[in-house]
């Protein structure tokens, strides 16, 4: 009879990821399609090679400063959910919830959808029937026209495959992440090696003469009238977004071995490693193409233009393969990490209850993975995910600033707590990150108040949801 009342043991995460796995999650989540396209966009605003390289160096250092601050928080609180937990503990449950709400409904799911479509676009180079040009369904309702193309279906398939892989254990997800991250870095390294050995470029492209008096952007049209500082700020924002998603590994903190040491190390190693990859890649582009020529590359596909100049027509196909590898690995990292946030929210009674359960065998948040996969697929089908990303692009940076500031808040709030790792260069390093990031947040709001205002509205819509789940939690406690 005693067995009748036996309480089933709660399923918990298992720490199976090492330092290499954690570092690959950081690097793989950051390196997507941006490095193959963003340098051309940036060159339009800042067609000066020395400053182009400086942008990537400064962006990398700033990102590393943020990672250093996150290291202290993760070492102090190595819990599933990462940034959600930090914001909850430093400020309030509602702020942590608003971060998780925005992450689920817009930021992470939107990125997953966008990266999956990017994969599909380049698959279309080899299989035209699976491109965006292949329309499957088209109709119009009350003046609103909807078009479904085959690339969207490919994107959904990618999301589905990677979601399934990550349901079968964090180790399977990590194997895919390691394989594709190493592959994408190797592909970039191969392009660099070939460019500098047989590319027939010119080092003078990297050292063009420059004067502030004669400076002016050359693309896009709205940038041509910008002054140096405005152009520098906009170009820097593109670099910072290419460095985004570096904090993904903090979401899976409970699944990393010796998290007090390995997560801070992986954050710093990963962000600095990506900075090195980005800087060398941009030096390669500039070695082959002058900055002004980079800015005018069709569709901003600068990596394809460089490869085509080296390999001929074959170059575009080689870069298409490299981007497919890069985007597939990037999406895997995004899909793997974020469900741990939704799991933590559900455990706090602030999300769908089923999201707070782990699979008894695989120890993965299967329900959270499925919820994320379904919503990402909806955004892929809707065709509105790019707009959603535009509206809330500043939100990711805003939450990052608040999280770095949490280092100061928590040192005052919990001075007695053990901190196995402390922020290097405190307080200068986190202050520098906060000041520079705030400059870009203000610039985004001033430059596009409509989009940023709508993005803030999407975040604030989470407040009624928080009230609903909070009340439901209280009712459950009383039952």
From TrEMBL:
It comes from the Bacteria. GO terms for cellular component: membrane. The keyword Membrane applies. It is a multi-pass membrane protein. The chain crosses the membrane at residues 20-45, 51-73, 94-120, 153-176, 185-203, 223-246, 267-288, 318-343, 391-411, 423-446, 452-469. InterPro entries: AA/rel_permease1 (IPR002293), AminoAcid_Transporter (IPR050598), Na/ntran_symport (IPR000175). The keyword Nucleotide-binding does not apply. It is found in: Membrane. Keywords: Membrane, Transmembrane, Transmembrane helix. GO terms for molecular function: L-amino acid transmembrane transporter activity. PANTHER family: AMINO ACID TRANSPORTER, SOBREMESA, ISOFORM B. This is Amino acid/polyamine/organocation transporter, APC superfamily.
């Amino acid at each position: 009879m005693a067995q009748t009342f036996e309480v089933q043991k709660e399923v918990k995460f298992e720490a199976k990821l090492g330092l290499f796995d954690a570092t690959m999650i950081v690097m793989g989540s950051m390196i997507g399609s941006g490095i193959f396209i963003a340098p051309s966009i940036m060159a339009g605003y800042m067609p000066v090679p020395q400053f182009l390289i400086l942008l990537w160096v400064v962006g990398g250092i700033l990102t590393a400063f943020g990672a250093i601050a996150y290291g202290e928080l993760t070492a102090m609180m190595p819990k599933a959910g990462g940034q959600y937990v930090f914001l909850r503990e430093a400020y309030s449950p509602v702020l942590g919830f608003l971060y998780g709400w925005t992450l689920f409904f817009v930021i992470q799911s939107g990125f997953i959808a966008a990266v999956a479509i990017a994969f599909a676009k380049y698959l279309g180079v080899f299989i035209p029937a699976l491109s965006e040009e292949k329309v499957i369904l088209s109709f119009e309702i009350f003046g609103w026209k909807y078009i479904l193309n085959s690339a969207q279906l490919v994107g959904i398939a990618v999301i589905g495959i990677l979601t399934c892989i990550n349901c079968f254990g964090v180790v399977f997800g990590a194997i895919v992440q390691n394989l594709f991250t190493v592959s994408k870095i190797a592909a970039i390294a191969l392009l660099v090696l070939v460019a500098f050995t047989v590319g027939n470029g010119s080092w003078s492209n990297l050292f063009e003469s420059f004067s502030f008096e004669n400076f002016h952007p050359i693309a896009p049209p709205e940038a041509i009238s910008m002054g140096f500082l405005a152009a520098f700020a906009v170009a820097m924002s593109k670099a910072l977004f290419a460095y985004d998603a570096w904090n993904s590994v903090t979401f899976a903190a409970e699944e990393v071995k010796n998290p007090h040491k390995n997560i801070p190390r992986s954050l710093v190693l990963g962000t600095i490693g990506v900075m090195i990859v980005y800087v060398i890649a941009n030096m390669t582009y500039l070695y082959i193409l002058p900055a002004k020529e980079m800015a005018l590359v069709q569709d901003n596909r600068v990596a394809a233009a460089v490869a085509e100049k080296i390999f001929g027509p074959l170059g575009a196909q080689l870069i298409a393969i490299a981007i497919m590898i890069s985007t597939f690995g990037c999406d895997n990292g995004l899909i793997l990490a974020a469900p741990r946030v939704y799991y933590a929210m559900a455990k706090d009674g602030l999300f769908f209850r089923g999201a707070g359960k782990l699979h008894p065998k695989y120890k993965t948040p299967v329900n959270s993975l499925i919820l994320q996969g379904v919503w990402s697929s909806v955004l892929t089908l809707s065709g509105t995910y790019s707009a959603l990303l535009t509206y809330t692009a500043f939100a990711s940076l805003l939450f990052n600033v608040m999280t770095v500031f949490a280092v100061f808040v928590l040192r005052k709030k919990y001075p007695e707590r053990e901190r196995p790792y402390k922020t290097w260069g405190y307080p200068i390093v986190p202050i520098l990150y906060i000041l520079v990031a705030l400059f870009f947040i203000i610039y985004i709001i001033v430059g596009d108040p409509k989009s940023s205002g709508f993005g803030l509205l999407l975040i604030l819509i989470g407040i009624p949801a928080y009230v609903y789940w909070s009340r439901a939690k209280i009712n459950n406690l009383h039952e």
